[in-house]
Automatic annotation (TrEMBL):
<comment type="function">
    <text>One of the essential components for the initiation of protein synthesis. Stabilizes the binding of IF-2 and IF-3 on the 30S subunit to which N-formylmethionyl-tRNA(fMet) subsequently binds. Helps modulate mRNA selection, yielding the 30S pre-initiation complex (PIC). Upon addition of the 50S ribosomal subunit IF-1, IF-2 and IF-3 are released leaving the mature 70S translation initiation complex.</text>
</comment>
<comment type="subunit">
    <text>Component of the 30S ribosomal translation pre-initiation complex which assembles on the 30S ribosome in the order IF-2 and IF-3, IF-1 and N-formylmethionyl-tRNA(fMet); mRNA recruitment can occur at any time during PIC assembly.</text>
</comment>
<keyword id="KW-0396">Initiation factor</keyword>
<dbReference type="GO" id="GO:0019843">
    <property type="term" value="F:rRNA binding"/>
</dbReference>
<keyword id="KW-0699">rRNA-binding</keyword>
<feature type="region of interest" description="Disordered">
    <location>
        <begin position="1"/>
        <end position="25"/>
    </location>
</feature>
<dbReference type="InterPro" id="IPR004368">
    <property type="entry name" value="TIF_IF1"/>
</dbReference>
<dbReference type="GO" id="GO:0005829">
    <property type="term" value="C:cytosol"/>
</dbReference>
<keyword id="KW-0648">Protein biosynthesis</keyword>
<keyword id="KW-0694">RNA-binding</keyword>
<dbReference type="GO" id="GO:0043022">
    <property type="term" value="F:ribosome binding"/>
</dbReference>
<keyword id="KW-0963">Cytoplasm</keyword>
<dbReference type="InterPro" id="IPR012340">
    <property type="entry name" value="NA-bd_OB-fold"/>
</dbReference>
<protein>
    <recommendedName>
        <fullName>Translation initiation factor IF-1</fullName>
    </recommendedName>
</protein>
<feature type="domain" description="S1-like">
    <location>
        <begin position="25"/>
        <end position="101"/>
    </location>
</feature>
<comment type="similarity">
    <text>Belongs to the IF-1 family.</text>
</comment>
<dbReference type="InterPro" id="IPR006196">
    <property type="entry name" value="RNA-binding_domain_S1_IF1"/>
</dbReference>
Length: 101
C-alpha cells in the first residue's frame, strides 16, 4: 500500500495528499507495447549517433541509441553485439537498448 505524502503551506494547512512517487529500475520498467527485441551486430557507425546493425536473421536496420544509454555515455563501437528494439510499424529502423559486454 503506497504511503501518502502530505503537502502543507506556511500556515500548516494541508494543500493536497498524493501517493509517494516510486522510482523504478530500468529492468523493472515495462517494455513498449508491441516492440520487437532482437539481437544484432553493429556494422558501421553513421553520423548523428546512428548505426547500421545486422540482425541475427541477416536483415540490416538503421538504429539509434536509446535515451538511457546516451544519458550514461555508453559507447557503441563497430562489431559490438547489441539488442535492438524494433517497432512493428517500421522494421527497417530501431533503437539500441543494450550493449553486450
Amino acid at each position: 500500500m503506497p504511503r501518502l505524502v502530505r503537502a502543507v503551506n506556511s500556515s500548516g494547512m494541508a494543500l493536497h495528499a498524493s501517493p509517494e512517487p516510486q522510482c523504478q529500475v530500468a529492468e523493472d520498467m515495462p517494455k513498449k507495447d508491441g516492440a520487437i527485441e532482437i539481437e544484432g551486430r553493429v556494422i558501421e557507425p553513421l553520423p548523428n549517433a546512428m548505426f547500421r546493425v545486422e540482425l541475427a536473421n541477416g536483415h540490416k536496420v538503421l538504429a539509434h541509441i536509446s535515451g538511457k544509454m546516451r544519458q550514461h555515455y555508453i559507447r557503441i563501437l563497430p562489431e559490438d553485439r547489441v539488442v535492438v528494439e524494433l517497432s512493428p510499424y517500421d522494421l527497417t529502423r530501431g533503437r539500441i537498448v543494450y550493449r553486450y559486454k
